[in-house]
Design brief:
2 helices, 103 residues, 0% strand, mainly alpha
């Protein structure tokens, strides 16, 4: 092999290496862009799921509040209709609590 063909081969190899380097840099940029896009999509989806969870929690809290208000009304009505029974239940609960705490 003469020096001219060796030089030509070296130049071709250098050109291929440069082309590969350029392709690798493009792939890195594309990969970085893809990772950013996936991250944004994941954040967006998490935000949507979080908002949905908050809405469901608020609805459950509203239902619980309504149910507790209904129970409170039932207790007040029951206490007004039969105060002696209510007093007896309260005394019994106090007695049981006293026995448990005494031990």
């Amino acid at each position: 092999m003469n020096s001219t063909s060796k030089s030509k081969t070296d130049d071709e190899e250098a050109a291929r290496i440069d082309a590969l380097s350029t392709d690798i840099e493009k792939l890195r940029a594309d990969l970085s862009s893809l990772v950013d896009s996936v991250g944004k999509l994941a954040k967006s989806r998490l935000r949507a799921e979080a908002a949905e969870g908050v809405a469901r929690s608020e609805e459950a809290l509203s239902d619980l509040t309504t149910e507790l208000q209904r129970i409170e009304g039932d207790i007040i009505t029951s206490a007004r209709e039969s105060p002696w029974r209510t007093l007896g239940i309260a005394a019994l609960i106090g007695l049981i609590a006293g026995l448990i705490l005494r031990r």
